[in-house]
Structures are given as structure tokens and as C-alpha cells.
Amino acid sequence: MKFNSWKWKPIVAALAAVTAMSALSACGEGGNSGGSGSYPSKPIVVVAPSGAGGGWDKTARALTKVLGEAKLVDKTMTVENKPGGGGAVFMAEYATQDKKNPYRLFVSSPPILINNLKKEGNSPYGYKDTTPLAQLTKDYGAIVVRADSRHADIQSLMAELKADPSKVTVAGGSAPGSMDHLITVLPAYKAGIDPKAVKYVSYDGGGEAIAALLGGNADAIGTDISSASEYLKAGKVRVLGITSPERLAGDFKDVPTLKESGIDAEFTIWRGVFGPKEMTDDQKAYWAEKLKALSDSDAWKKELAANAWEPEFKGADDFASFLGEQEKMIQELLTALGMAK
Fold first, then answer.
1. Rg from Cα positions in the chain
2. CB 219 within 8 A of CB 127
3. Residue 269's Cα: distance from chain center in Å?
4. For a 10 Å CB count at each end of the chain, is N or C smaller?
5. What confidence tier does 28 reach under pLDDT thresholds 50, 70, 90?
6. What is the average per-residue pLDDT within 307-316?
7. How do residues 43-59 score in pLDDT, each as one tens digit?
8. Could you give the CA distance from residue 156 to residue 142 in angstroms, rounded to a whole number?
9. Co-location of 248 and 148 in the same domain
10. pTM passes above 0.90
11. Cβ–Cβ under 8 Å, residues 152 and 241
């Protein structure tokens, strides 16, 4: 039988069109991909890798509240708490089980870097096992003493540490090698003092560390400046220096930066939003638009004020570059402490 190819051309074209449409449909809703044009098509979970009431939890709840109430995201958004290991337990689950799931985001801060870099209790997973979506807020570290302390400035504290570090007790609200510890020893390290010689006592949270300071059980503490705000306003503490690049306004306008005091040290306590490692370009573009709109909204500015957070928006590319820079600084500090893996 003679084969007339022209008779088959319309049928072949129709079959090709059906196949292409089926593929697109599979991409759009299949699995966790979200797909082009359909994302998001179901509720979204934002994880706080901690218990309720902490900084991560407050950030996640403020984020979902504003995105929903401002109608920036029309799908239901809920917060899930996943405490354990300062975020390390959650990261082990997320990086292995949710790497293709764009319906599960999370908030984090410097511990995502610290946990991945330190030797003891380290996590094999870090920010490179995620997609950084945006930085939303910033805070800074502070070296704080009692209002009646013998130390009137950071140079006085550093001089005493240099003379005999065993006579100075510094404290923080987290374990050795974690964020408060790094903030506490950062100025000493930058001032040429062996950070391993600094006597650091860890407490279970910043509130307990401040209580230890006020009770005379510590000479100084490292904490975040927003946590010290109410005690500073009440006249109970003196802030010797902050890790910001320049002076802050408002209640902190009279507090010098470490740089002003001759110690070349900065440390930003950022908070940001992350997604799974394997996100599509469409999904990343969706969150780039929504998170920028969130940052610009009046509702978000009210949340910042209510929580004493400083605004600091960085889009995905700038955020990822910043994380790479901060990772190097944290690696340097942990190495000096003998705590790097």
C-alpha cells in the first residue's frame, strides 16, 4: 500500500499538541513543583524552627499575618513550630525531605550559618541547601554592663580582659559557639585578645543572661540591642558598644559603635525567609515580588515598630551574597575559638 505522508500530518500535529498540553498540566500541578502560572495553588506553611514566642516565631507570624491581611498572597498561610538544636533538627528534615516543596518556607537568622560551621553539635546542612528569598529585618549585637559597672566604655572592659581574662565573667543567652557567644567574644578577638581565654557563661535565653548581669553574676553580657532596650531606658544597664556600622537613632543615639571605639568589628543579626533548594524560576519570581511588596507596606512597618525591629530588605541575590560574606566572618571567629569543624 502506498504511504501518503500528507494525510498523516494533521493527525501527528494533533497528537503532538495533546502531548504538550498534558506535559504542561503535569508541570503545573504535579507533585510539589507548583509549576508555571499555577503557583501557589494550595495553602503555604511558614516554619519557625523554634518554640513559640521567640524571634523566629514572631517573624513568621508577622510575615504570614501581613501577607494575608494585605491580600498580597491569596492562599491560606499558617505557621508551624519545629524546635530543636537551634534550628539544626528542622534543617536536617527540610534539606532532605522538602527540597522540592515550594509550599513550605521558613525563617532563619545567623544560626543557620553557625550550626553548619561549628564542630560540636553541627548540622551538615546550611543556607546553600536552601533558596534564600529575602532578608527582612536586622538587629545588632551589644556589649552590656550594669549601670553601676566599673567599666564606663568598651576600652576599659578590653583592658581588664587583656590584663587578666580570668577575672572577668562574660555571659550570653546561648551555648558556647552560638550567636550570643560570638557577639560576646567578637570585640575581644578584634582587640587582639585570645577568645578562648575569655570566661564565658551560657544561660538559657537572653532574659536569664540579663538577670545574671543585674544580679551580679556576670560583669558583661553579649546580646542583641533590641533585647537591652527596656533595661537601658529604665537606667538599669549601660551599653558599651554595638556591632552596627554606624550609630543607631532613638534610644541608642548615645551608644557608640565598636568601630567608633577603635575596634573594627561588625555583626548583623538578620532575619530572612528561605525556600527549598530546588525552586523554579517562576516560584522565585513570585516570592521576589511578594516579599518586596511586604517590605514596602505600611502594615509591615507597623509590625517592625511593634517588635522593635530595624527594616533591612535584601532581595534574593543580594541576600545570598551577604550570607556568603557573613559565613566567612563566622568561620574566622569559630576557628579562633577552636570550635570550627
1. 25
2. no
3. 7
4. N
5. very low
6. 91
7. 999 999 988 877 889 89
8. 16
9. yes
10. no
11. no
159 within domain boundaries? yes
**How far are the Cα atoms of 49, 100, 139, 330 from residue 86, in angstroms, in the given order?**
7, 23, 18, 16
Q: Based on the number of CB atoms within 10 Å of its own CB, is 99 exposed (0-12), middle (13-18) or buried (19 or more)?
A: middle
Q: Where are the beta strands (DSSP E) in the chain?
A: 44-48, 77-81, 104-108, 130-146, 169-172, 199-202, 220-224, 237-242, 268-276, 310-314
Identity (one letter) of the amino acid at 301? Answer: K
Distance of CA 17 to the CA centre of its chain: 46
Determine the 3-state secondary structure of 222 from DSSP. strand
Residues 163, 153, single domain; the answer is yes
CA 94 – CA 317 distance, rounded (Å): 21
H or E, element range at 218: none
Q: How many domains does the chain have?
A: 2
Q: What is the mean pLDDT of the chain?
A: 88
Q: Which three cell numbers stand for residue 272?
A: 530572612
* 285/204: higher pLDDT: 285
Whether residues 118 and 202 share a domain: the answer is no
Q: Which of 266, 126, 289 is nearest to 183 (CA)?
A: 266
Q: Which three cell numbers stand for residue 255?
A: 551608644
DSSP assignment string, 142-176: EEEEETT-S--SHHHHHHHHHH-GGG-EEEESS-T
225 in Cβ contact with 257 (< 8 Å): no
- Give the residue among 246, 269, 280 at the shortest CA–CA distance from 329: 269
| 49 φ, ψ (degrees, to nearest 5) | -75, 50
Shared-domain flag, residues 299 and 285: yes
Q: Which domain holds residue 225?
A: 140-252
pLDDT digit string (tens) for 226-279? 888 889 999 999 999 999 999 998 888 999 999 999 999 999 999 999 999 999
